[in-house]
Amino acid sequence: MSILSFIYDLIFGPLILLFDAVYSIMFRMLNNEGASIIALSLAINLLILPLYRRADAMQEEERVRLEKLQPGIDHIDHIKKVFKGDERFMMLQTFYRQNHYKPYYALSGSISLLLEIPFFIAAFRFLSGLELLKGNPYGPIADLSLPDGLLHIAGIHINLLPILMTLINIVSGIIYTRGMPLKSKIQLYGMALIFLLLLYDSPSGLVFYWTLNNLFSLIKNVFYKIKNPVAVICAICTGLACVLLPAVLFLFKLPTPRIQHFVTAALIALLFPLPAYLVLRKRDLRISLKPAEKSDASLFLICCAAITVLTGLLIPSAVISASPAEFMDME
Length: 331
Known about the structure:
Layout: H1 3-30, H2 33-82, H3 85-98, H4 111-128, E1 151-153, E2 156-158, H5 160-176, H6 182-199, H7 204-224, H8 229-251, H9 257-269, H10 273-282, H11 297-322
Antiparallel strand pairs: 1-2
Helix pairs in contact: 1-2, 1-4, 1-11, 2-3, 2-7, 2-11, 4-7, 5-6, 5-7, 8-9, 8-10
């Protein structure tokens, strides 16, 4: 085994198995390929939300740090123009040391983009070769294993999902980078165009998953800008439950009893956040969804441990259930 293959298996292998385990569980509950992709996207995003919150906090710390160092940075630009070689290097190192700044801190400004890469590769490998998607439609998509080709103009088939994915990504980037330097904006818009080129001819199931990821990111960024995001989320959840629950119970019958029970239980659960929030508010407990602070470190570590434990429990059980005879010792 080569070093590159070992690194690939070490980093991306567990993520692909995680995608497989989560999708298998969702498909057993929903028995629908497209709906399982939606559930997979929601589950993965909720699992890694603490990672993104910590990444957002690190980016904010880097932005504040650079604002404080801006006068010195302007002086550094002058130093780079005037001095060369060891003299310039020593002067720059002295400036960084006096201000407790290490050059690798600049990487924290790109940590969100770096965090997306392993999950994108895992999703690409898993959904691109998923046999369940072959020949199966979902809504207007004729085949989840092929490019969508939803637009037909003058006999030319245009894939609509990658364009929609890019537009959502750009809108999310506009909201997220408000007040940030031009370099951060160029990074996000450049990544949006790269994803468009990479995924334009990809299977629609994969593009649908990544479009949902971008939509989740857009919602997250919008709620970061709201003064009281928890109250808004609770109100939306309760409003959706009040509208959809009577429709599911009395007007529409879902494809299978399992889906009917699952959706009903989920909608009933959505009735509780708003009353719980009102009770907590009366007790003067402040809840915030803003980027992580020091108090979020424990939540971050707990979620990392939970992901590790769940992966360790679910993946072996899924492997064993696929072929029990291979793991049995008759003696």
